[in-house]
Each structure stands twice: as C-alpha cells, then as structure tokens.
Amino acid sequence: MAAKVLVANRGEIAIRILRSARELGWSTVAVYLSNDASHAGYADEAVKLESVGDFMNVEVIAATASRAKCTHVHPGYGFLSENPELSQALSKCAPAITFVGPSPDTLRIASDKMLSRELATALKVNIAPGRRVSSSQDVLAFGQQVGYPVMIKALDGGGGRGIRVVSRAEEVDEAFKRCLGESPSKQVFVEKALTGPGWKHIEVQVIGDGTGGVNHLWERECSVQRRFQKIVETAPSRLPRSGVQPLINASLSLAVKLLYKGLGTFEFLVNSRTGEWVFLEINPRVQVEHTVTEEVVDLDLVRAQLLLFTPNVSLQTLSLDQPLPPPTDFAVQLRLTAEDPSKNFQLSPGTIRAADLTWPAGRGVRIDTWLSSNGHGPAEWTVGTEFDSLLAKFVVRGRSFEEVTQKARRVVREFNLINTNPGSGSGMSAVRTNAAVLAGVLEHPDWLAGDIDTLWLERNAAMILDLGNTAVGKRVAPRGLEFAPAGNSSSTGPAAGGGGGGGGATITLLQPGSLFTLTLSPPDQKELETKHTLTLSSIGRNTFPEILSGVLQTTLSPSTPQLAFKLEQSTSAAVGSGGGEFELADPNDARHVGVPLTGKVVEVHSALLFLQKAGSSNSTKDRERLRVRKGEALVVLSVMKMENSVVAPFDGFVERPGKGVKVGAVVGEGTLACVLEDRNVVRTAPREYTEHATTLSAAELAWTAEYQGDADKALWAYLARLYCDFRLASYSCMVQSSGTGKSRTVDEMSKAHFVIPIKLEDGRKSGYPPVDRELSLFLTSSHMWTQTEVNYSKFFRAFLQALFETTALVLKNELDLHSHLEPFEDDDTPERIASKFRERMSSDVPIEGHRSYRTCFYNVVIAATEEITASKEFKAQTAFPMAPLERAFEEVAQRLRSGNSDSPLVVIAFDEAQALTDPIYYRADWSRLTVLQRVFSIRSLSLFTLFVSSNGNIDQLSRAYRSDGPWFAPRNLVGPPFVTLGFDQFAKLNGTEDLELVTSFDTIARFGRPLSATLSCSKIPLGHDLKLMYGALKLLNIPFDDIPNLKKLNPAQILACLSRWLPIGLTWNDEAVEQVDAHMRICLKADQLHGFENIVTIASSEPFLSETAYYIMAGMRMDCPKAYMDTMARDAAVLRTSGQEIYAGHGRWCTVPDFLEELFRPGLEKIHSAYGLVLDADSQGSHCKPHPVPLKETFGIDTAVYCTHFLKLHQSQVVNTKYLVRLYARGAGVLCPNPYCGIDGAIPYLYNSTKLAASNIGAILWRSTTDKEYGVTPQSALDLFWEMDPYETGLFNVDDKEPVEVPIIRIVFALGAETPSITIIDHGKPGKKKFTTYDIWVAGLGPEVFGVVDADSAPVWQALLRGKDERLRFAVSKEGEEILKSMTPGVAEDEAHWNSWVCEDGASESD
C-alpha cells in the first residue's frame, strides 16, 4: 500500500513535514482552519477542522486520518505530539495507522518530567534536586530545605509554559497558581533552580529505530531565552567536545532503555564555568530547532524520521548506525515572532500581506515560515491569539562562528515588514515583530564571546533592544536611487526606517507649514458640521502610523496659539470582538487599571467576580470582599499559553470591573480591567440601578406566589422510593434548566419534611433563592491540607458532623441566633419541626440575600468544621471515625422519628450542585461532588441527599455505578434523575382575568421565570454574537475556546443557532441577556384527555425551535420559517405601537391589523382592504356571502394579539377556545405537528373585549406547505382552506346552540411557490355552522410578500425552508438523537420520559 501521511499540525512545521513527505513520493493530507490554511496549499489533500480544539482532539485526528485512508500520522511538535492516546487510537483504526513517533509507553515516560527524572536516577544520570508537589505549602517546604531560588514546573509544560523561578517565599503562591494554570494536567513539580552566569541550555539530538539501536546527531545550544522560551539556537554548541560527551552518553543510555524510535531531544543544563551538568527532560518529537542540526550534519531529519516508520528500515539501512563526525560548520536559528519588544514582548495580532514582506536570501540562508500559500489562496495572513507567535525561522549556515554571525546579521537587516494597517476593514492593527531583538543579540559583544546563559537575555534586554534598533535602522535606500511613479499611487515619499524589525513604517511625507482642513460633525448629521484649520508648525518625529509628534496650530483652540501633539498607535482594545464590548482605561486617571498587553482572560479577582454578579454593594461585609492589596493579581491573561498577571498598583477597593472583562474574553492593550478606589478615600453610595428591577422581581414573585400543583409531593414520593431500595445509593439528582421551579418545589417539600437547604454559587448569576456565599466558598475552596482523595473525604465527613451538631442545637433551642421565631416544643410532630426549621432557613427571603439567621447558622457550621479539622486527633487519623458523625445525626433523627421507616428522616438539598463538579487539581476524573457522593453513600443514616442543578453533564451529577470503577465510584447503583417538574400555576383561571391583568408584571412573574424578556428585533439578528454563541455551544458543539470564530458559520447554521431564541424576545442589556441565557422558557405538551387541568410540563426549557433546528439538521421538515416570521412580526408591531421596550402592559401585545402589517408589509393595502366571507349552512342548502366590512375595520383597535412564544400541542382538540384562553393568559401561540388536525398553527386574539373568556377568543389559523406544485393562485388547493373549518378543527364547539360571532382569519402559506404573491380568497365552502372568515393565500418566500424578509436575508430563509439542503447537515453524528436529548440534561438518561415527549397518543407522565 502506498504511503499516505496526515500531518496533524499547522504553520511552518506542517509545511516542513509535507515537503519531505512529497519528496519521498508519499501522498499528503493537511488539516486546517478557515482562518489558518497557508500550510494546506502544500498538501495533496486538505481537510477543514471545525475549531482550534480539534488539533488537540484525538478522536477527530484519528477519524480524519482513517477517512482519508492514511497509512501514517505525523504530529509535528506541540498539540498531540506527546500524547500516547493518539498513538493508541491510530493503532485501533481499521486498518491500523502508524504514528510517526515513539511508542505509547515511551511517550508516557518522556512526556512526564517526573517519570523522566526517575528513569534518569535509575540510570545514574545527574538530575537537580526536586519533587512532585500538590500545593504551594509543599513548594515552601522544599524551598526551605534546599534554599532559593527554586523552579516550579508543569509536568507537561513546554515552550517556556508552566515554568516559574521563585526567588523568595513570598512569590510562591502566585507562581504556583500560574504554573498550575498553564499545565493541561494540573500537575507540577519543583526543583532547585540552576540559573545565572555559566548555566547553559544544551540539548542532544537522538534518533532511534525502536529496536535498541540509537545514535546521536550532536548537540545544540539554546541558551538565548526569554521566560524560558528559546529565541536563538546554534549548532553545535561552543562547549569543548569533552564537555559535550557526558551529555551524549547520558542521552544514549536513556534512549536505549526506552527502546526509542524516531527523533528525540534530550535536554540538559551545563555550567560552562564549573563543568557541572544535570538532565532536564526529554522532548519525544521533532523540535522547532531541528533545522540547525540538519544544516551542520547535512541530513534531512524529517525524511529520516518518516523512513524509520516504514517496513524493514533501521538505522543501519539509513547508514545512521555509526556516530557522525563532529560538525565543522556552524548554524544559527533565529525565531521571528509577532511580539512587540517595546511593550514587554506583548503579542502583536494583525494582518500581514505578501506585498508588505521582504524575505532575506542568499547562500547558506534558509527561511521556514507559514507566511506562504504555495500559490493557493490569498497572499494575506492573519496573526491571531489562537496559536503561538512564531512567524518564521531564519536558519543560517557558515564555516565559522564569526561567518555565521555576520551572515545572520545581514539576514535580519534584509528582512522587512512594512507596518501599514490593512485596508480590508478588518480592524486589526499592524503586526510588530522581535526582529530588533534578534539583531541586538547578534550585535552584543557577549554573543561572539560565548558568554551567554539562560537568563542573559532578560538581564541585558534594554541594551540588546537598543543595539537591535540601531542595527535594523541602518536599512535605508541607496543614495541616488529614484523610483518611477507606479500607477496612481498617492505615496508622498519613500519607505524608510527600520523595516527589518517590523518596527518600522511607511513614512508619510509631512512638512512644517502643511495646512489641513478638519471637518467635524455628528454621524449622519452633515448639516451640523463645523470646519477648522490645522497647521503643522514643526514635526518632532514621523514614523506614522506608529508615531507622529510635533507642534500645531488649530482654530479648535483659539486661546492657545500653539499646541504640542503626539499621535501614537495602540493595539485595539477590542481584539477578537466587535467594537463596544470593552472600554479603554484612562491613562490620566490613577484609579484606572489597564491591561498592558493583548491576551485571553483566564482568571479574574474574586472582587471583580463579586461585583459582576452582585452589581454593587454598600454593606460593610461585602466591602471587605472588594479589598485588594498592592501587587495582587486582578486579572490573569493567557498569551500564547503563558499566564501574565495584571496587578493592583496600590492598596484599595474595587469600585467596578471593566466592561466585558471576564474569563474567556480576548482583550487588547489598553482595555480597562477595573477601577480601584484608594483605601483612604471615603466611598460614596452608588447610584441606583432600577432598569433591571423587573428581572430580579420576576424571580422573587415566582417564588413567593401561591404554590400550585403537586410537584413537591411527586418529588417526595420519588425520594422515598429510591431511599427504600437498598440496592441504590442514598442520593440522586434533579436536573432542569433554571426557572422551572426546582428550588421552589424543594422549598415546598420542606414544609412537611425535614430539609436542610444549601445554595451554592456556580460562577454566574444565580437567581433566586440567594446563594449561601460563605458556605459555598468554604465548600468549593481549596484547603491546603485537602489535596488528596482521602483528605477530601475526611473534610466532608467533618462538615457533615458539624452540620448535624449545629442542627441539633437549633432543635434543642440551644443556639442563640437572635431569632424571635416560635421555639421548638417537645410535642412537636416531625412535620411541625420541619415547618419551623424551614421558617428559620427559607421563609420570606429577600432577593438581595438570606436573612441573618441562615447566614449565622452556616457560619457556626463553618466554625465547627474548622475546629474539628484543626484538632490533632483529626490530623492523625487516616480515616474519619464514623461514631461522632453518627452520634450527631442521631441527635437530629430522634426528634423526627414517627414510626415510619419508609422515607428518610433528613434530606440535604444542594442547589446549583454543578458548582461542585469541577475537577480537583491533577485528577480530571474526580471532584468535590464525587467525594461527597461517596460520603453520602452511608446507609447507616436515615439520610437522603438531593443534588439540584440547572446545567452540567448528567453523568457528573449522577455517576453510573461500575464494579471496576475507581475509588470514588458509587458503592451502590444510582437512581435515575428526577426531571419531570415545572410550574403549572397558569393551568387554572378564575374567570376575572382581563388583558391588563395577564400582561401585568405580577402575573407574568407568577408564570415562571424569566418572562421578563420582551423584544428581539425586526430583522434576522445575524449580528448578535451572544445569541450565536449560545446556539453554537448547544447545537453545533463548538468548543467554548472557539467562540470568537463564529464568523465561519454559514447563514443556515447561523439561523439554526438563532432559532433557539425564537420564543425569547429580549431587551438588549447585559442583565437580561444573562437571565435569558440561564433561564429559558418551559416547553409544554397538552392533550385532550387531561388538557390544562393536568398539564404535562416537559423537562426541556429550550423551546420549540430547538427541536426544529435539530429536525432541520437531520433532514426532516417542520414549519420553522413561518413561526419565526410570526414572532418577528409580533415583536416589530409591539415595538412600533407601544414605542418602548418594556416588560409588561402594552409592551407585550398589539392589534391584529398591526400584526398583519408587519408580517405582510409589501401587501399591506390588499390585506387591510380585504372583505371577509360569511359561510353559512341552512336546511335548504349551503351558501356563502361576502362580509360587508373590510379586515382593518373588522378587527380595528379592539383586538389584541398577545403571543410571545409558541407551545407545541400534540392533539388538535386542544386548539379549542376554552383551551386557547388559557394559552392566551400566558402569551402563547399554538403549533400543531400532527398533520391530520387540519391546521399547522394558531395565534389567538381577543375580539371586541379585553376580558379573557372563551366567547371572546378568535384565532389566526394557518396551513403551510413547501410543495412547489402550488403556484400563484390557490385554485388547486382550496381544500387547504376548507380543512381549516373552525368547527371541524375544534376551535369552536359544534354543539353550541348559537353560532360564534367572533370572526377568524385563515392563511395558507405556499412557501415553495416560485412567484411571490398575495391573493384574497372571495369564495368558500360552508361548514356545519355559520362563521365569518378572512381567507388569504400567500405564495413564495421573499421580500415581495413578507415584511420581515429583506433582500439580504432571503437566501437564508430559502436555505432554512429547503430543510434537506446538505448545507444544513452540520455537527450531527450518527448519535444525532442523543444530541437532541442532550439539549436537556437529564432527559438523555430517562428513556421513559424521552418517549413521553415524542409520543402522540396523549399519554402523560405520572410524575
């Protein structure tokens, strides 16, 4: 079989590997992203990945290689190159695929620095003192033992990431946290730091054939580093051969022991002054700097590596089984990066055009770069934040070190990148490079003297940069050289100055005396423009657009004749985002803390988090939470996978966070991180924010309104059933989207059963009830001594003991918490005790936070826990003794026993339990929740624990039992999650409701959160990234880290994402967005048998169109476009007629003509002037006659459409006025997926009355068809109208004695018709009873008929309409049904509930 290799990498290394493979005659496959495809032009085939994360996804790479029928996969460096799981996955493909790299066993050792050190120790290879650590306390102990400095390292770090040198104890905590953050596995170790003069970084290149045959290809020196990232490498080193030989011997002994196969680098630290050396680590892959070895040994390393993974090839067959002679030439590699040395080497994103580049060339010069497309694609490349900053590698060879240095200096000076902003409108800034630093290194006298160590660059950075700027600044045009004008170029002068650094610019020729006219006006108000003159008096510095300075005169400031000015280019503060998402720090305001460099926010200070959630606070207690100390990290940025802290400049308090600064955001230089308030400044009261009061009040009212329904009884029966089954663990979970009544139901249950409620904080706005903040922080924080599984188990058992001891004190009235509530009595029944306890813990809780009783209660529990865990006895025990815990529980239980043992005596309810599911430290497979569940498996206590969650993986909350599972797996089987639950307060009406009442804020709030959101917008909101983000995460499985790349979605994908939000109108403020994101509506099913008196509430709170989006993706057909149009038309009508985006009242309804006007704006006149039909049936026969009043007058101003979302009803009999009035009360329209019911949907309206009664309800009924056989006229399809007879469909009751006087509207949408038109039907077929109807035929789907469709969005609607278009088949695997189920956490694990959702027989769930 011919060899075919997939290169699982990008950039210059991918091009490097593809070239060698093609030279061997192999077929090649590249993987790429839409915004990073330059390397793909060098392959025979290219496969597009969905996201950056796919480069690290073993399954994606293996599946891609298998589909492409590859024989080999080359990982390059970085990404999956050191992951043994990729090798294993490839071996399991059919047929098996060869991984071009060491065996999985070798990778496991080589990629783990501690295992590598242990192997070295076994082979008597020198290593620095070190040990594995799990806390900063361990680091402090090590530092005290060996002395500072010490070095903290990630076990799986690399490229300078995950490494921090600590010079004193005070630096340990921050350094430990940063290293942990940069370690993918969250595992670190510490070793004695060997840095300073004399210590060089030397590495040996090894090659092996996997049989024990290994050889070395000499060494390289990589001592020129910044923050342990290599910048300049040379081969060979300038150490004497006698000093290199011990390193070679050690490398070969390690490689032989590992049966090493392929390329590998063995790294060491060598003191050139003393001769000391120690082994550092193994890099089991091709290195970035392999190029210099290739140059001095004259060998294509990648070609040799590929050949070693073909049959019957060994080092001997490659003539590499004997040591090569020592190199006689020298080679230098210079890494050109997109970093700005003048700004602390910050990342410099932007766009580079081929026309702006000048590459060096000549004998002995090699350029490895990804800024090349091999003639495929545009000659323009984007430097972003997703990957490292490497642009190119300059590789230079010479016969002596002096010669190679001279050649390297020339190479750097020849390189030029013209720094002009691209004219593409991308908003990206010009890219800066580190070329001046490279030049400065070569110019420094220490370079030729060989006096370089690993900290040399950082010690001499200022001098190096000055030398480099001088060197690259020498690049000027030859004297006497003139250029002819090119085309219509408007250039006013030659390019000059420092092109070699990427730090130069195209100079715009400006002269003193130049006169300009400055015109100013508000946007789109030209009539208000003013004109001013601006004269340049003198010019100080001109490297525009980088810097322009001088003195000017302007009529803008007539009182000041001359003004000094300086115009300096700065990185945009909205990198990777739309404008307006962030705000800039004011450099003149000392309180403003600005972000000094571009990067991704990975951590924010707890004070900023608190204010982002709470908004503001005046309390003394909360004020302490806002305190920060000078030097404390306020924001941590990840730049090229390395973490950088933005620290507080002085002691003070956080006044407010910067807009948009949150974890995951990509922020630019100058972004406002936060505003600080000096600790000595008296704080003034914040201004009140009343605009979001409705959002908070909705939650509070939904909680305090009279509870209706039996969900609390169903929940208790469910808990009792699981408790009595001794095969099951004594805990389970309840998982639903927020706002469906979980917490309220638990609270209602606590009125009759003893429940201890705990509300955790999950990192977002937690709604109602409020969070138990201190307890949540206590349970979710990392306690220094709890860093093992056993200690966490001991901690939680101590917490339980303290909780029961404190509860027992409450029940005995011995805990004085200043409560004036009724005391507990000896003769209280268990139900009365439960009710009194609830009064203390949960009764009348304001939205702002819990009352003092509950806060004090948990403070006592925290103090008791800390007392237990601080005792000598506790620390000395390897396992927590059960006796004290059982005694504490018994004190509570004895008050609650009533002779019934069929249910638990005590229930502990953890609300927002997903806060406990984050992995702890280096163990990705265990969390605080797994430990808690293990603890709560105690069957000796009459205790049941309920984990309540709004989101999260169901398996995390209800981990399945496995007999071969790890220690934390449940000891018992776990019962299924409880998911069928929701508010049903809207099920009953008392007959007094009217339009004003049902659209009032109080009523809306009672119907379940969050009905506070109102409007979307009148056009398809393709630009709302927030909506797209949510839809992409839920529907497209796009990783969170890839969200900034939403632009790559095609229009159909975008609309599918937005369809999740269809029933959710919303006002565009941040708080409403947060609420809607976390609290989506309940999706309901009603049937004829039970109707709304026993309504079925579906667990999914994601509405109808989330289903629709799935069916579209799966190639099925539903009426998505029509429902979307109706919602958009309604929103536009409400906004136009009410004139405001409000939460209640007229901000929620519109008249029928207003609704139709927005829906059919192009055909408005025809529809408004349409006459209806009176269809009658009498004993002599049937006839119809026209209704004498046109539509607009018939419906006039005394009709009201109140439809903010749709419910899918599974039986058409529910579409009856007595049911529609209840739907109307909650602002719902109807969708009927049953094709036999005669209609596809209905929008109810009130007619000639504002009172809600069945006699006042009418409806717009519609049918929708996509068949192209229907043309402009409806003659062939009049039966579609006749099937919508209101008596046949059940809208009106045929048994009523008198005919209904309320007119209806019937519309047939022939969306598949090619010619758009609107026709008024003037004849019809009488039914069983007399009724009045206005019939409208709508053909086509385009701006000619629909007001909500414009020319730009019409193709999107058409794509959605087609349904089976291949472009709509995205991100759906063979487990497509599971994807749909996973839209609701919990449903996927409950087969019966899932079946009840999709069934059409009207059966309801028992729970």
From TrEMBL:
It comes from the Eukaryota. Residues 485-504 are annotated as: Disordered. Residues 495-504 have a biased composition (Gly residues). The keyword Acetylation does not apply. SMART domains: Biotin_carb_C. This is Pyruvate carboxylase. Residues 1-462 form the Biotin carboxylation domain. InterPro entries: ATP-grasp, BC-like_N, Biotin_BS, Biotin_carboxylation_dom, Biotin_COase_C, Biotin_lipoyl, CPAse_ATP-bd, PreATP-grasp_dom_sf. GO terms for molecular function: ATP binding; ligase activity; metal ion binding. Coiled coil: none annotated. Residues 117-310 form the ATP-grasp domain. Residues 485-494 have a biased composition (Low complexity). Its cofactor is biotin. Pfam families: Biotin_carb_C (PF02785), Biotin_carb_N (PF00289), Biotin_lipoyl (PF00364), CPSase_L_D2 (PF02786). It comes from Candolleomyces aberdarensis. Keywords: ATP-binding, Biotin, Ligase, Nucleotide-binding.
